[in-house]
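Tutorial handout. Part one gives the primary structure; part two gives the three-dimensional structure as tokens.
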Amino acid sequence: MAECIFCMIANKEIPSTVVYEDDKIVCFHDLEPQAPVHVLIIPKKHIASMDDVDEEDQALLGHIMLKVKDIAEKLELENGYRLVNNCGEDGFQTVKHLHFHLLGKRKMTWPPG
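Part two.
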């Protein structure tokens, strides 16, 4: 998707501070961090939201979930972290490209904040 900012980041059309990348995903620092460590994990394939995943995306989602622990280890999140996916307007999804927020290096509160 040409107008999608995350697709443009994945395609290296917009610079970002990449933490991890492979042939399926890119992980980069959030520009408006909500914690001392706040990165976004996105698939290189454009998927608008969790509501748009289908059976063919099962392996990709599994890949993302397996890479979370490696990324958390690289970022030294040894005391834990929060992994968040916002879906849709009420879920406060602001970019219509599936992404996961990985936050750490501070004590998280509940409700989220």
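Part three, for discussion. The two ends are 31 Å apart (CA to CA). DSSP finds two helices and five strands in the chain.
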